């Protein structure tokens, strides 16, 4: 049986999630049900969205070190302005997406290293978030709280919404012209330019999409956590990179997979549950997460070698 | 208002008189802690483990493990609390990363019928219990003590904490009420020491030249040693400084006392307040119905308990005590007026 490299890229994250889910079910059989899955995957949507945001940046061969602070910043906007003055709140969020687009274009125009620019932006977002909400608080807008608190029949919201987002992201990145263009920039920027496309514009659009995923991540996180906090999701930066890489994305070459990224994010989310159930001390948990990442990467390289020698 | 103080000795007596209760012997109580990176938190976890290990051995509860998140993140702690719900704990005691960001997870726990008790880092979710220390009383009791030592009164210097925090506001309000109660004292100067020895020393040294004779210094903890250094450096008469249980403060106090006699008192929030959370959760599982907002007493070190407190406090740390089941019952009774 011959598998395409795309399918191969997907097998590992799916397998990793299946193994972890199986472990959780085996350790705690009571999680096998609506309530159990609801609690296990409650935070899946914001993490998946943040990982998709990171993935779009990875697709154009850049890396975003401001994902976590940006998502935290969005929770502060959502918990304050979007409640009191919805119009202004929407305006701020749109401006934030525009800022992302501008960043992408500046990085392309001046040939700046994205890792430095986004590292700088992480402090800007954190600063703005603290100015907006000096101490944690605010409330989630009623409609977001209602949406994230919705209990659909049969499948919990966390699972359902993540699957929906995954499918939409797959269509956008893997099936649309725009998606091909963005991945093309990661693959070979010069040939895209030669074909008559504006690289500057395409990079701006890619960053805008990443910003939009970040905004959605922050909004859904606010709904789930019921309030905003300037430090709420700072760890999302590393989680999103790890999730995307775990899901088969690569730092170079525009090789990304939205489905893989979502599975990777869910795997890391589930890993903390497994560690808690196994009573792994917290100091070891980060290390254990790293071990999962290394194990999956090692497996991927091993499989990749097999593929190359065929 | 009655002054409720806990002395290490009374804790030991209460602990030995403790009897196992059948009602909660199958109960499982978990600690969800957001941070373990300073000496106060380390002392807190140590207290929790010590007190709960005894409770488990006595058959009062089935188990009481402590969980700390690795990165002090509200999202991480929310996921941790959700895992605890899945684990089926009967009660969760929380030192929260954020007063509001865990409310969703806490609500979820309450809906699952779990008793949630927050302390130190409290959460605003109405279904959870909140255990706080009476910081107002910490301010007021300083004046009461000063009035006992210096009946004729005098000028006071006030060292405040971190501006804008509720703890600073509450202690300050208590000090003002104390001054109203003992009008022979006048506050002639005030600085913000941010609960840190070095900041306090700098701020006190700055204001000192403009101050008249100072009879006493009212403090918030962590600032007493720095204030003493500033007074010593300026060659001024050493006033009566109320201490805050830090090891350097207690050590300085003892040295002064041995050098020529120095009487004062020390009080602060003990890291062992986690064990108050444990016992109050146990009491709620046992059927107690306290109000949602509870106040636990301060840890007070007096001249008589100074040696013992100093011996038990590691360098750079803060004096600690565990709260007993009886302490928790007293707190609940005081809150319900029973």
In short, what is this structure?
The complex is a heterodimer of chains A (310) and B (338). Chain A is 76% helix and 0% strand. Chain A is an all-alpha fold and 310 residues long.
Read across the widest sheet of chain B, the strand sequence of neighbours is 3-2-4-5-6-12
Radius of gyration of chain B: 21 Å
Uncertain spans of chain B: 1-22
User: What series of H and E elements makes up the topology of chain B?
Assistant: EHEHEHEHEEHEHEHEHEHEHEEHH
Summarize the largest interface: chains and residue counts: A-B, 36 and 31 residues
Q: What's the helix count of chain B?
A: 12
The helix/strand series of chain A, from N terminus to C terminus, equals: HHHHHHHHHHHHHH
What share of residues of chain A is helical? over 70%
Number of strands of chain A: 0
Largest sheet of chain B: 6 strands, parallel
Number of helices of chain A: 14
Portion in strands of chain B: 15-25%
| Average pLDDT metric of chain B | 87
Percent helix of chain B, as a range, is 40-55%
Q: What is the highest CATH level, the class of chain A?
A: Mainly Alpha
CATH homology superfamily of the largest domain in chain B:
Response regulator
Quaternary state of the chains:
heterodimer
Task: Give start-end ranges of low-pLDDT stretches of chain A.
Answer: none
Q: In this structure, how is the largest beta sheet of chain A organized?
A: none
Tally of discrete structural domains of chain B: 2
Cα radius of gyration of chain A in angstroms:
19 Å
